[in-house]
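Archive record
______________

***
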Amino acid sequence: MTILKKCLAAMLLAASTQAFAIPTLSLSAAPATVGSTVDLAVKISDISDLYSYQFTLTFDSALLKANSVVEGGFLGTAGPTYSDGGVINNATGLISYVFNTRLGAGAGAFGSGDLAHISLDALALGSAALTFSDVLFLDSHLNEIAVTADNGSVQVVPEPATYMMMGVGLAALGVMRRRQLGARA
């Protein structure tokens, strides 16, 4: 076998054994403080020919309250779209059947970007779990696209001023305790 044939065979073998990346559905949000509004970005990465999608999102209703769902810009890069923010049920912590679809003929969107933005109010301290279900992604031929759904969470933390007040209070208690011990000696 010549060197050229060996190189070509090695290149074909490497190309055929390369794993194709499965697109990933994920969530992104900064930590929130009690009483603040959180922008939760629903993202897709490494997708080809996305024509339509849907998902349901479950959240912890003791920690978060959903306000609205708006379309992200990603699918619109391929042309006109029609979307619906689903049905919000804050009692059960569920946003059901959020969807978006391209309109008309043509290819879907390629690459990575924001599918939707969800506005949430932070109600109480804690880690609010977020879980995807009813996930369906279709290409421009209406074939299903396999997608990995990465569930996430939103951290609701105290305001920095709360930490400062707690620190001042602890320092004051320490001074008082030191005085009590000094008076006894």
Notes: Residues 65 and 109 are 31 Å apart (CA to CA). The mean pLDDT is 86. The chain is about 20% helix and 50% strand.
